[in-house]
């Protein structure tokens, strides 16, 4: 055992020593080499002045250098000399006095990032090859001078205190493509701020107190985000020079009116977010030139009515449309030209009728209609060839459901009708929902759910029953048996599966998820002793179905407790099948214990025999004087020390005999097992 510990410990010591040698004195270091070789230096005890000598012990072949929680007096011009492969320098949670302008002038260095870092002097950088510069949350009050960064393409100045930007701040950065100015205090952008940036294509100005927006551009701006500014209007003046936009986010502003021609000319626009504004209406021709819109988000406005959106093309390419909490009372014909919709969210509105609205949406897969005023769903509510997989009708006054309506949805997997005032699950059992896997019927007024209600959903894997005033009836026992026997999971798994639905198909009641424990609450309602009423479904016991036919003749008996309400009937006599299964489980446990005992005895006996054999062998050899632990002419291996001379190879640990060489040479010298000249030192970077 000591030998095993020695073998494991030595490489560990070597690794630790290697990692800590590659460090700055007084700091903690960690090296990573998954995809890129990265060195993290953190929590330095003393302030540092970064020079070439500071990194004297640092391996120079790293590609990323990270400094965290460090007080840096100055970064000198030669600080990173010798790092010929370095591509990125990341400094976070630190304080920097000053930086030599040319400190980052390395040919391979393309990215520097400062996060939550303060500066004694605002950096003025001069680096020919730098492409990405990040000053995130650095308490800057002005834009750093970037005139001497000719290769700069990306600049991030988010989460600072910048109020005013000089019109020439980016004038000499001709290759600049993307700028992030979010979370500052900018009230106005200079009109010609980006006029010299011919490749400029992305601007993020989120969370700034902008009251208006207008820019002169010579480039093709593709992405513009103005989320949660204070814009009260966005008109043709704001939209000029934005004809190349593909993504526009105006959410969280105070816009009340959008002119009919505001998006005119934006023929490549494919993402538009107008949510959380104060819009009251939209003209039907507002997206006339925007047939490529694939995502439209209008949530949290006050429209009441959506128009019939028109387009100059044959149809919109829209696959996602959302207008949640928009006070909608009607959407008739609104989606006539959006037949390619895949996801439609109209939840939290005031819709009452949905007949014929979705019949032409042949590709619709997800439909959200929760929290409306829909009282009935007819057979013509959805098309004949619908591909709907997820349907959410929760919080609508439905009262009952007709399976015929949903049977037409031949791909339906998830149906949510929770909180719908249902007093009966299905009005009939005339149709099967052959593909339904998840059924949410919680928080309704259901008092009874029968096995027949669930038999029309043969693929059901998850059922939410919580919040229903279920009564205990003889059918309740059958229901629990059905749920357990068919491996149907309960609400305990529902919350997980809503965000990890791809895991659903992997659930196996024979392994970790046992439905009998999930339906314990339902058994308690009926005053069942659930500890006795376990139907075990494990790999080592017989299934309930295998035993049912043998024990179902006259084994079921119910005893009425005399309660006229029938709410708490007790089950006094349990199925003989359950006793058989429990007995079978106990038998298997006993058999496993027996096998374990026999195996343990065999192993112990073998160890004793082996020990005695070795002792006898050593005793015989010693009596014959043919063996001596200290003088025996046995081959001995000398394991080279870790501080062996250069060029000497470390021994691999294997023993071999030359095939044709003379073995008459001198005997191998005896090596003391403690020949290490000194205890292997665990290096600590802190003196």
Automatic annotation (TrEMBL):
Identify the GO cellular component terms for this protein: extracellular matrix; extracellular space
Which residue ranges run through the membrane? 594-621
Q: Does the keyword Ribosomal protein apply?
A: no
The protein in question is named LRR 8 domain containing protein
Source organism's superkingdom? Answer: Eukaryota
For this protein's source organism, the top of the classification is: Eukaryota, Metazoa, Ecdysozoa, Arthropoda, Hexapoda
What the entry lists under InterPro entries is as follows:
Dev_Immune_Receptor, Leu-rich_rpt, Leu-rich_rpt_typical-subtyp, LRR_5, LRR_dom_sf
Q: Where is the signal peptide?
A: 1-19
Q: What Pfam families does the record point to?
A: LRR_5, LRR_8
The record's keywords, sorted A to Z, are:
Leucine-rich repeat, Membrane, Repeat, Signal, Transmembrane, Transmembrane helix
């Amino acid at each position: 055992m000591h030998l095993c510990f020695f073998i494991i410990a030595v490489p560990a010591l070597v690794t630790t020593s290697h990692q800590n040698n590659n460090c700055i004195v007084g700091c903690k270091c960690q090296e990573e080499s998954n995809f890129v070789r990265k060195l993290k230096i953190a929590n330095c005890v003393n302030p540092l002045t970064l020079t070439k000598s500071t990194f004297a012990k640092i391996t120079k072949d790293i590609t990323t250098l990270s400094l965290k929680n460090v007080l840096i007096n100055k970064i000198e011009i030669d600080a990173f000399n010798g790092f010929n492969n370095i591509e990125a320098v990341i400094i976070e949670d630190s304080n920097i006095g000053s930086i030599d302008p040319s400190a980052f002038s390395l040919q391979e260095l393309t990215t520097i990032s400062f996060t939550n870092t303060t500066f004694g002097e605002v950096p003025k950088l001069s680096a020919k090859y730098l492409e990405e510069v990040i000053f995130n949350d650095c308490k800057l009050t002005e834009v750093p001078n970037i005139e001497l960064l000719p290769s700069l393409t990306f600049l991030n100045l988010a989460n600072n205190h910048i109020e005013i930007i000089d019109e020439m701040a980016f004038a000499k950065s001709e290759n600049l493509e993307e700028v992030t100015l979010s979370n500052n205090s900018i009230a106005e952008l200079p009109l010609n701020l980006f006029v010299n940036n011919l490749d400029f294509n992305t601007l993020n100005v989120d969370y700034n107190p902008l009251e208006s927006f207008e820019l002169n551009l010579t480039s093709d701006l593709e992405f513009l985000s103005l989320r949660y500014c204070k814009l009260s209007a966005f008109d043709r003046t704001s939209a000029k020079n934005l004809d190349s936009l593909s993504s526009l986010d105006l959410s969280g502003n105070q816009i009340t009116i959008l002119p009919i021609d505001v998006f005119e000319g934006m023929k490549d626009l494919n993402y538009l977010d107008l949510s959380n504004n104060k819009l009251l209406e939209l003209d039907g021709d507002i997206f006339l030139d925007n047939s490529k819109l694939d995502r439209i988000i209008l949530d949290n406005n006050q429209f009441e009515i959506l128009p019939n959106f028109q387009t100059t093309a044959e149809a919109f390419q829209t696959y996602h449309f959302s207008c949640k909490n928009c006070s909608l009372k009607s959407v008739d014909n609104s989606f006539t030209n959006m037949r390619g919709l895949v996801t439609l969210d109209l939840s939290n509105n005031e819709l009452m009728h949905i007949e014929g609205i979705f019949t032409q949406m042949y590709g619709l897969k997800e439909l959200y209609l929760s929290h409306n005023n829909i009282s009935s769903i007819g057979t013509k509510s959805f098309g004949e060839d619908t591909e709907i997989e997820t349907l959410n009708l929760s919080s609508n006054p439905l009262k009952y459901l007709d399976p015929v309506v949903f049977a037409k949805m031949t791909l339906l997997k998830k149906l949510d009708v929770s909180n719908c005032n249902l007093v009966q699950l299905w009005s009939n059992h005339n149709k099967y929902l052959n593909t339904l896997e998840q059924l949410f019927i919680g928080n309704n007024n259901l008092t009874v759910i029968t096995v027949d209600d669930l038999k029309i959903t043969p693929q059901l894997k998850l059922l939410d029953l919580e919040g229903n005033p279920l009564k205990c009836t003889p059918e309740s026992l059958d229901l629990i048996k059905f749920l357990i026997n068919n491996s149907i999971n309960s609400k305990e798994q529902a919350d997980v599966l809503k965000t990890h639905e791809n895991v659903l198909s992997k659930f196996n009641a024979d392994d970790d998820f046992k439905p009998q424990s999930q339906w314990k609450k339902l058994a308690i309602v009926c005053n069942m002793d659930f500890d006795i009423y376990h139907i075990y479904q494990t790999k080592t016991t017989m299934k309930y179905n295998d035993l049912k036919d043998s024990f179902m003749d006259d084994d079921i008996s119910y005893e009425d407790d005399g309660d006229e309400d029938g709410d708490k009937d007790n089950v006094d006599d349990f199925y003989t099948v359950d006793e058989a299964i429990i007995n079978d489980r106990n038998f298997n446990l006993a058999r496993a214990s027996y096998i374990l005992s026999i195996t343990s005895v065999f192993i112990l006996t073998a160890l004793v025999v082996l020990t005695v054999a070795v002792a006898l062998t050593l005793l015989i050899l010693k009596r014959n004087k043919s063996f001596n632990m200290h003088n025996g002419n046995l081959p001995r291996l000398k394991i080279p020390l870790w501080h062996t001379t250069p060029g000497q190879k470390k021994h691999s640990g294997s023993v071999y005999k030359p095939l044709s060489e003379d073995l008459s040479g001198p005997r191998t010298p005896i090596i003391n097992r403690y020949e290490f000249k000194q205890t292997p030192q665990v290096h600590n970077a802190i003196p």
